[in-house]
Amino acid sequence: MTVMQKKTQVRLDRSSRLGKRSTLKLLWSSLLILSLLVLSACGQNSESTAKIVEGKVNVVTTFYPVYAFTAAIGGEDANVINLLPTGVEPHDWTPKSQDIVNTSKAQLFLYNGAGLEGWVPNFLKSLNNDTKVKAVAVSEGVKLLTAEGDDGHGHGEEHSDDHADESSNEQQAADHHIDPHTWVSPKSAMIMAENIKKSLVEVDPAHKDGYEQRYNELRTKLEALDQRFTNELSSVPNKEIVVSHQAFGYLARDYGLMQHAIMGLSPDAEPTGQDIVKLAKLVKDEGIKYIFFEELVSDKLAKTLASEAGVQTMVLNPVEGLTQEQVNNKDDYFTLMQKNLQNLLIALQ
Ligand SMILES: [Zn+2]
Asked: Transmembrane segments in this chain: where (predicted)?
């Protein structure tokens, strides 16, 4: 029985209490068509209405990159449910009650950690007491960056691991201004993918071989992407990038770039007029040719700075979620990161 049929079955069971079973039989096919129409009409938010599947390992993920890697490694052995709907930016999203219901029934809950999902501690407390769900911050093990100061213009200094033994990455994120954007660098994405694979094997050891095999395929793709970033960015003459929100710290660290952000770690941390003037001066002094912006957040500030400094804007995608258009185009982590590399090569010539 497919998920959709099961859903229809539930609906029919519910309505059978209201009407006679004999007449209901005649309505089977029309109800099925009707419910399919309803389902496709609200396809925009299909991820958040995804259902637990019995007989499979059910994994709830918070946002796109964790979902994409988990779906790739999980393959046919795992049912992966993503909480964040298409076109939604993760920094100010919070879960709904249905998300708590689904996660309580799942075997695994995978989130980024490093402070991205501030709602996670309370969310985990609100799950059913008898839930057996295992919660894992998949960025664990990535060497984290701090963004110093509240002005949002931190230059991504490496966070010193002074209390690595007694506290997790999560605790460190709460204590400091930790940059949560680990997935934007293929190097840290590899660590995340490995954590995801280990978690799947742990909750579902019967399908270990499949998880290992699909993880190796994903790992090979991430290594190729990492090689391309390393090779192609090593030869560009300019290394300074100006971005709208401070999401490229790990990318900058791992590939020898210097990030200047108009906004802070979260896209709603707005700059002052003085910040814009300072950045415009930097853009002119350094001969920077493009200001980067992203699709899920307003490009107003990037446009303001670009016109102030007399330069162009271009997209650099932090891959925090897909737009509906990107879903339709079958874009994924790899196609978006390839486009990022192409745009970086143009901007840094
Ligand atoms: Zn972000």
From this structure: none
- Number of helices (H) and strands (E), helices first, in the chain? 13, 10
In the numeric block, which tokens belong to residue 328? 């339709």
What is d(CA 183, CA 123) in angstroms, rounded to the nearest whole number?
22
Please give the CATH superfamily to which domain 236-347 belongs.
Answer: Nitrogenase molybdenum iron protein domain (3.40.50.1980)
Separation of CA 317 and ligand 1 centre (Å): 10
CA distance 208 to 331: 28
**How many angstroms is it from 283 CA to the middle of ligand 1?**
22
Q: What is the mean pLDDT for each group of 10 consecutive residues in the chain (349 residues)?
A: 43 41 48 41 45 93 98 98 92 91 96 96 91 96 78 42 48 71 98 98 98 98 98 96 94 97 79 88 95 87 92 96 95 98 97
**CB of 307 closer than 8 Å to CB of 252:** no
Diameter over CA atoms, the chain: 80
d(CA 142, CA 187): 9
Instruction: Give the separation between CA 114 and CA 65, rounded to whole angstroms.
Output: 14
Cα 182 to middle of ligand 1, angstroms: 10
Question: From ligand 1's centre to the CA of 328, what distance in Å?
Answer: 23
Instruction: Using the mean position of ligand 1's atoms as its centre, give its distance from the Cα of residue 73 in Å.
Output: 24
For residues 276, 280, 281 and 284, what is the CA-based torsion angle, rounded to 10 degrees? 170
Residue 261's region, left for phi above 0, alpha for psi from -120 to 50, else beta, is: beta
Whether 57-226 shares its CATH topology with 236-347 is answered yes
The pTM of this model reads 0.80
Q: Is 111 helix (H, G, I), strand (E, B) or coil?
A: strand
Listed by start position, the domains of the chain span 57-226, 236-347
